[in-house]
């Protein structure tokens, strides 16, 4: 079986770019992208960014405390600037703004041909299996520091 080398987008500079096509399921009854779809596009961008850095959700664990870790969106501030429509080709751009303690700070944009359609400031927390924020393991912070 062949692999699709670009299915997860690509790393660029301190961030990541993921192409996304707008399908009928992403739109509302007017053919304009439904606001909740942008949140899904941003999630895909963050997940593929981390995947290409070698950070996989199913492999997150804290070996010191022998517990499984996870990512949880702590906050997301969105600004909708212009609409996207069915069949548009968009780019989800994710930039690492910093990481400290249990938090990862990201700036995300959805762009159509250099035109910014939607922006998001996102704070992601590393949490333990009981849902409490926990300092990210050194291996994770080192992978992020390389960006």
**Beta fraction of the residues?**
35-45%
According to CATH, the fold-level topology is Thiol Ester Dehydrase, Chain A
Structural class: alpha+beta
Could you name the CATH class? Alpha Beta
Q: Kindly provide the radius of gyration, computed on alpha-carbon positions and rounded to a whole number of angstroms.
A: 16 Å
**What CATH architecture would you give?**
Roll
Major sheet details? 7 strands, antiparallel
> How is the largest sheet built, in terms of strand order?
1-2-5-6-7-4-3
Number of separate strands: 7
Q: Can you summarize this structure?
A:
The chain is α+β, with helices and mostly antiparallel strands and 147 residues long.
Word description of this protein:
With 147 residues, the protein is α+β, with helices and mostly antiparallel strands. It has a single domain, classed as Hotdog Thioesterase (Thiol Ester Dehydrase, Chain A), CATH 3.10.129. The protein contains two helices and seven strands. The chain has helices at residues 35-52, 138-145, and strands at 10-12, 15-21, 61-62, 67-80, 89-100, 103-112, 115-128. Strands 1-2-5-6-7-4-3 form a seven-stranded antiparallel β-sheet.
List keywords for this structure.
elongated, single chain, alpha+beta, Thiol Ester Dehydrase, Chain A, 7-stranded antiparallel sheet, 147 residues, 18% helix, 2 helices
